[in-house]
Design a protein that fits this description.
- This protein has 368 residues and is α/β, with parallel strands linked by helices.
- The protein has two domains: 183 residues, Rossmann fold; 174 residues, Glycogen Phosphorylase B (Rossmann fold), CATH 3.40.50.2000.
- 42% of the residues lie in helices and 18% in strands.
- It contains 14 helices and 14 strands.
- The strands form two sheets. The chain has an eight-stranded mixed sheet with strand order 3-4-2-1-5-6-7-8, with helices on both faces. Strands 11-10-9-12-13-14 form a six-stranded parallel sheet, with helices on both faces.
- Helix 5 links the parallel strand 7 and strand 8.
- Helix 1 packs across helix 14, helix 7 runs parallel beside helix 8 and helix 7 crosses helix 12.
- The model has no long low-confidence stretch (mean pLDDT 93).
């Protein structure tokens, strides 16, 4: 088949939706012709692991830039290319689905309710939500990465939305790069807490973790990894909360092997988000065997083994209580925790299996 992916910033991936696109596209490229459209500001044209990458020019403007990028990608697919199926990612890109349906079967994937992210204003949130309808109702086959969101979308639009989860794979771990980061932060392996997100906005809950840390009598050092610049004033709020605490802010790590090294060596990984779809960060933390404490939103609890501790989202005091309980566990418990976490996600969320699910959907959509 000739397959195109539209709706990501391109590959190689640096996080989020791009990781999903890269994982699926590179596996399909072993036996199909696969093209990924992306932004020329992020990716370069060429071949990446068997996938053709097309870099589309678009302005850097926060609101208009993504619209122009996806519209130009859709027009290129319609006028200058030939595919059997187009896969559109992210419901905010639903506005291009009716255009693509003029020529192609379209599979869509909802990667979470972007209109709930606090970085968007009220008008942008309404426009994004309007695009959600297009991504469901106009798709040949619509999917969502979270089971509860697939059900909610099906009920909201009275249209079937299938659940296809995100996945993990065994990937290299760079303990040397991680050790350099720990040395620069003056932190020792196994004796720190870790928070990580590609884009640290309020919905990721870092402020909740800092507030909980301030309630501890003897807090462990905390590494906060990720870009802090995605919501006006949020960086200043985090740095103010971190004053007097053993917190080190680390810029976003585009080399995933280094981030996996930090995950393997942390005392605990804390994931306090209030809005998610199916977090790649959470899946990867569990796959490394990191001792993980996550908020209790349904998108997180659906991924965690049932016996794992959680805390009430956006509740610093409950996070403090659960963190004290978790850190008090002995090494036998922690070792079992690591093994259980890794086995749990690898047996349920394997990228090879998930790529086969998408291929089956492409064949249904095209009647191949």
């Amino acid at each position: 088949m000739r397959i195109a992916h539209i709706g990501s910033k391109g590959i190689p991936s640096k996080g989020g939706t791009e990781r999903v696109v890269e994982a699926v596209a590179t596996r399909h490229a072993r036996r199909h012709q696969v093209t990924v459209y992306g932004s020329a500001r992020v990716c370069s044209p060429g071949i990446h692991r068997g996938v053709r990458v097309l870099a589309i020019q678009a302005p850097a403007a926060k609101h208009l830039g993504p619209v122009i990028l996806e519209l130009r990608a859709a027009l290129h697919a319609l006028v200058r290319a030939r595919y059997d199926v187009v896969h559109v990612h992210a419901s905010e890109n639903g506005f291009i689905v009716p255009l693509l349906r003029l020529r192609y079967p379209v599979v869509t994937t909802n990667h979470g309710p972007a209109y709930e992210r606090e970085k968007w204003g009220a008008v942008a949130q309404r426009l994004i939500r309007a695009n959600e309808r297009f991504s469901v109702k106009w798709a040949t086959i619509a999917t969502a990465v979270a089971a509860n969101q697939a059900q909610a979308l099906s009920e909201r639009y009275r249209w079937p939305v299938e659940h296809v989860p995100n996945g993990v794979a065994r990937e290299p771990v760079d303990n040397v790069a991680a050790a350099h980061i720990l040395e620069a932060a003056n932190v020792r392996s196994g004796e720190y807490l870790l928070f990580a997100a590609a884009r640290v906005d309020p919905t990721k809950g870092c402020h909740t973790l800092l507030e909980a840390l301030s309630l501890l009598d003897d807090p462990l050092p905390l590494l906060v990894v990720g870009d802090l610049y995605h919501a006006p004033g949020y960086e200043e709020r985090l740095r103010e909360l971190a004053q007097g605490l053993p917190v080190t802010f680390v810029p976003r790590l585009d080399e995933k092997a280094a981030l996996l090294g930090l995950l393997k060596q942390c005392r605990a990984f804390v994931f306090p988000s209030t809005v998610e779809a199916m977090s790649m960060m959470l899946l990867e933390a569990l796959s490394t065997g990191a001792v993980t404490l996550a908020s209790d939103i349904p998108e997180n609890t659906a991924v965690l083994p049932p016996e794992f501790l959680t805390f009430r989202a956006d509740d610093p005091d409950d996070l403090r209580r659960q963190l004290v309980m978790l850190l008090g566990k002995d090494e036998i418990y922690r070792s079992g925790f690591r093994d259980c976490a890794a086995e749990w996600v690898r047996s349920r969320y394997d990228w090879d299996d998930i790529a086969e699910q998408y291929e089956a959907l492409y064949r249904r959509a095209t009647r191949w």
